[in-house]
Amino acid sequence: MLRTEQRNPATTHLDQASTIEMLRLIQDANRRSVEAVDEALSQIARVVDAAAAAIAAGGRILYIGAGTSGRLAMQDAAECPPTYGVDPDTVVAIMAGGREAVFRAVEGVEDDAEAGSRDMLALKPSPNDLVLGISAAGGAAYVVAALRTARELGAITASLSSNPATAIEREADLPIVTDTGPEVVTGSTRMKAGNAQKMVLNMISTCAMVKTGKVRGNLMINLRPTNRKLRARMIKIVCDELGVDESRAITLLDAHDWALRPILDAV
């Protein structure tokens, strides 16, 4: 039996627990998510390097998942353009069931291998792309077929699961296994497994962007001023890095069409 499907002996009395006891059980389990990611760092590092190489070569990071895994991938991909100034096609996420499945569970779509292959073909993956398949259980037919198709077309493939020796791992050049173990609620992989997936996706996209020059020190130098908060952040970066006041920072940003990089590069 998959470890993510086993019963957790620490939570067999969950329905009898008080509120604070439930919270403590969940929080104790959350710590295992962090530990599992820590244990997988060497695997994650290989995927980060492949992701950075893909971006440097003009390729893409392509995430493909189902259910919670797909939704987490969608979130990570959506946040890359405003944070790092990359084109929306640089980090792309697709999930079983399409956009409808992002907001509402669509049953059975993760078992559709034909759809996985078809959706991957539509992306036209190339040897410059990194394709990361995400499935907590590791056996979603949609994700397995998508990875197999990407591999046949020459893309570098990676996998992220919470069980060892799974079908997606066999289709991956670079597998990642975050062994989070049995869930608080048996089989509910949106919990520990999902926590670990979120951390790993953050690591991959963040480190790939840093390694390809989208960050200076720990500052977002490709930031886009898409709302008040981000405009304020850009002003603060110019003030701090150039030692100027807010008025001068705004003048410089206006003169450079609110692009941070040319201002900081001139320092």
Principal-axes geometry comes out as globular
Distance, first to last CA:
59 Å
Low-confidence stretches: none
CATH topology of the largest domain: Rossmann fold
Pattern of helices and strands:
HHEHEHHEHEHEHEEHHH
How does CATH name the architecture of the largest domain? 3-Layer(aba) Sandwich
Question: What's the total helix number?
Answer: 11
Q: Tell me the radius of gyration.
A: 21 Å
What is the C-level CATH assignment of the largest domain? Alpha Beta
What does the average pLDDT come to? 96
Characterization of this structure:
It is a single chain. The protein folds into two domains: about 10-210, Glucose-6-phosphate isomerase like protein, domain 1 (Rossmann fold), CATH 3.40.50.10490; about 215-265, no CATH class. The radius of gyration is 21 Å and the shape is globular. About 50% of the residues lie in helices and about 10% in strands. The chain is built from eleven helices and seven strands. It starts with 18 loop residues before the first helix and ends with a helix. The chain is α/β, with parallel strands linked by helices and about 270 residues long. Strand 4, helix 7 and strand 5 (about 175) form a beta-alpha-beta unit.
